[in-house]
Design goal:
CATH architecture of the domain at 32-80 and 159-321: Roll
Number of helices: 6
Shape: globular
Distance between the termini: 44 Å
CATH class of the domain at 32-80 and 159-321: Alpha Beta
Strand content: 15-25%
Order of helices and strands: HEHHEHHHEEEEE
CATH topology of the domain at 32-80 and 159-321: Nuclear Transport Factor 2, Chain: A
Largest sheet: 7 strands, mixed
Radius of gyration: 22 Å
Length: 323
């Protein structure tokens, strides 16, 4: 009776730990990452395309006390983490999780249970609850340590905060509608033209096409160095698992402006985009599908923020998930 219980417990623990790594393998990893200048820690206004609230940043190089740093820094080569994996970003938490799992499995092997032994259905359910609680606490701790360990980049202090800018009513771009509602800080708004919206849509397609080819150089042409670090890290995580993700045939279904503003020499624009694509994760060795359906399109709604300096090209500086 103990052996089946041990196998079920081990499977449950593995499933809980590995679940976040299997889902959302597309660019950005299904998380909110990047920088929005002085508005990194504020929620973009809702729009018709994204009427809900945006998730706060899971990964960012902008410190709350130093808004605006990180997005416009000169590019530097991405240094892959040779250790890799979900726990590689925090060696302390990797050791802690290893100790917890080792102690728990040792207790199971010697018949004492994960946390003091179990017998019967009620005790087994209690074991699963304990596993879930341990995994939840570890994930929260990893997120906290990861945010603490993000490198701080020096930069020019951000300028005044801008007000939300709506798209011009006579813009000939049918894909993008009017901006969202909601109050915005008083500041200097900027106008976003149809040519800008075309650049945003082009960046959406370039990023996904280069992601499918695992072409970091292609993504670097339209993304900030900070976003490239996240893309490179996520691609490395997939490769270490022997997987690759394909996001192909991207079609922008609808998009609108959430806000656009100026901070000193930099200009920012956050746009909500709803797009459909084929999203499939395959095993590199034989091309077998690990997740997704190559014959079915999926629809995604995200908020993408772009930055440009002194009239230069727009560069992707953040991706946020909608609530």
């Amino acid at each position: 009776m103990r052996r089946p219980a041990f196998l079920l417990a081990a499977f449950a623990a593995a499933a809980l730990v590995l679940a976040p790594m299997i889902a959302d393998a597309r660019p950005g990893g299904g998380s909110s990452a990047g920088s929005r200048g002085s508005r990194t820690y504020s929620t973009p206004p809702s729009t018709q395309t994204a009427p809900g609230s945006a998730r706060q940043m899971d990964r960012t190089m902008t410190e709350p006390s130093r808004p605006g740093v990180g997005a416009a820094q000169p590019a530097r080569p991405f240094q892959p983490n040779p250790a890799g994996g979900f726990f590689s970003r925090s060696p302390f938490m990797a050791g802690l999780m290893g100790g917890l799992i080792g102690a728990g499995l040792g207790g199971l092997l010697f018949g004492h249970g994960l946390f003091g032994g179990f017998s019967g259905i009620a005790s087994f359910l209690g074991l699963l609850l304990q596993i879930g609680l341990v995994v939840l606490v570890v994930r929260l701790a990893i997120g906290w340590f990861r945010r603490r360990q993000q490198p701080a980049l020096a930069g020019v202090p951000a300028g005044g905060m801008g007000a939300m800018a709506r798209q011009a009513q006579d813009a000939p771009r049918p894909m993008f509608g009017g901006g969202g509602g909601g109050a915005a800080p008083v500041g200097e708004p900027i106008q976003v033209t149809p040519a800008d919206f075309q650049a945003f849509e082009n960046a959406l397609k370039v990023v996904n096409a280069a992601w499918s080819r695992q072409d970091e150089q292609g993504m670097r042409a339209v993304a900030t160095p900070e976003m490239m670090q996240y893309f490179g890290s996520d691609l490395g995580d997939l490769a270490r698992r022997g997987w690759r993700n394909e996001t192909r045939d991207v079609v922008l279904e609808k998009g609108d402006l959430a806000e656009a503003w100026r901070e000193g020499a930099r200009e920012y624009a956050t746009v909500a985009m709803r797009f459909s694509q084929v999203d499939v994760t395959r095993r590199i060795s034989d091309g077998a599908v690990v997740e997704g359906d190559p014959d079915r399109r999926v629809t995604v709604t995200e908020l993408w923020t772009f930055v440009r300096t002194q009239g230069g090209p727009w560069m992707l500086s953040a991706i946020q998930q909608t609530g």
